[in-house]
Amino acid sequence: MNIGIIDADLIGLQEHNFPNLACMKISSYHKKQNDNTRLITYSEIQGQSLFTETFDIVYISKVFTITKVPNGILNLSFVKYGGTGFFFDKAENLPYEIEHSFPDYNLYNNWIKEKILLGKKEDYFKYYTDFSIGFLTRGCFRKCDFCVNKKYNKVFLHSPLSEFVDKSRPKICLYDDNFLGYKDCVNILKELQATKKPFQFKGGLDIRTMTEDRAKLLSESKYVGNFIFAFDNIKDKNIIEKKLAIWNKYVKNERTVLYTLCGFDRNNKYDYDFWLQDIIDLFERTRILMKYDARPYVMRFERWKESPFYQLYVFFSQWTNGTVMFYATSFRENAKNHKSLIDFENKYPEIAAKYFDMKVENIAVRMKVKELIFNFEL
């Protein structure tokens, strides 16, 4: 059979620099059946007159709900589609024999060559060319309202490293939902270390499940890029601080980043009081992270544009999501006394006085002084 594979996010998003694992597994499975597979675009199936070849089956996969698919495509009789981008947390699993196929890492080769000829730098495609990609574990027990990972009540072992690690690829990228939530994650970390390949968890790790042995192992690993965690709810501040204190014993530098959700109302009211408290909570979480030499990476829920403090969210993201600006400036300095800043300060001077001028260096020094005093008193 002739099999067409469409990575919808690759076509529908302006910036998308990592491959679709489901697409690579589907391709691999069909190649084992002696079928022909190819990465294609919508233009090749949008009408009989546009056919460059006949496809027996066309698979369309997408991860992100914001990705658009042309009208009528999904109604074609030979099209099969799936993924969280279509069905969010109700997406069906791939059939077992496909899910546990070794990924076809050659699927994107021709597309990469075309993009490089058009001027893209080779480094842009590192996740396509340098990394073996897969899930070691699946599932998460957190059931966060805003999250797609609500299908399971636990974290469980999904596949061994041998199922997706290509010996010729120098690095490993893991898509696990909540790796540190798995009871035996320490032994798997040791297996990762034994490969002697640098690795990373693309979706981040759960700091609330951090322990001394996990922190030590991660700090000793060949880890790629930032250590990414999350601080999505101010109600978690006590456990977040407790776990960051453990983490700081082993890793204490600018490589610690926590995704920080804002603009999401768990009570679904989205009234003025919510938006004001959300801004305050965002500042407070940032203040807490500063104490532990960690940086927030602000993730704005889609309704943030409805906020009366719209411009403050813009400045906040510009400040925290750019490493240099966050470590070099305060919120006020980054916003350059924009009118929205002045208006907010005039209305809420106490909030502005507490948060607008805080800097990483100031809070970090203050914490170190407190530590010295505490140790001296002991």
Overview of this protein structure:
With about 375 residues, the chain is an alpha/beta fold. The chain has three domains: about 120 residues, no CATH class; about 100 residues, Transcription Regulator spoIIAA (2-Layer Sandwich), CATH 3.30.750; about 130 residues, no CATH class. The strands form four sheets. Strands 2-1-3-4 form a four-stranded parallel beta sheet. A three-stranded parallel beta sheet has the order 5-8-9. Strand 10, helix 9 and strand 11 form a beta-alpha-beta unit. Helix 14 packs across helix 15. The chain starts with a strand and ends with a helix. About 0% of the residues have low confidence.
Biggest sheet, spatial arrangement of strands: 2-1-3-4
Task: Give the class from helix and strand content and strand pairing.
Answer: alpha/beta
Question: Which shape, going by the Cα principal axes?
Answer: globular
Average pLDDT, rounded to a whole number, is 91
* Biggest beta sheet summary: 4 strands, parallel
End-to-end Cα distance, whole Å, is 75 Å
Radius of gyration from the alpha-carbon trace, in angstroms = 23 Å
The unreliable regions are: 48-52
Q: How many domains make up the coordinates?
A: 3
Secondary-structure element string: EHHEEEHHHHEEEEHEHEHEHEHHHHHH
Helix content: 25-40%
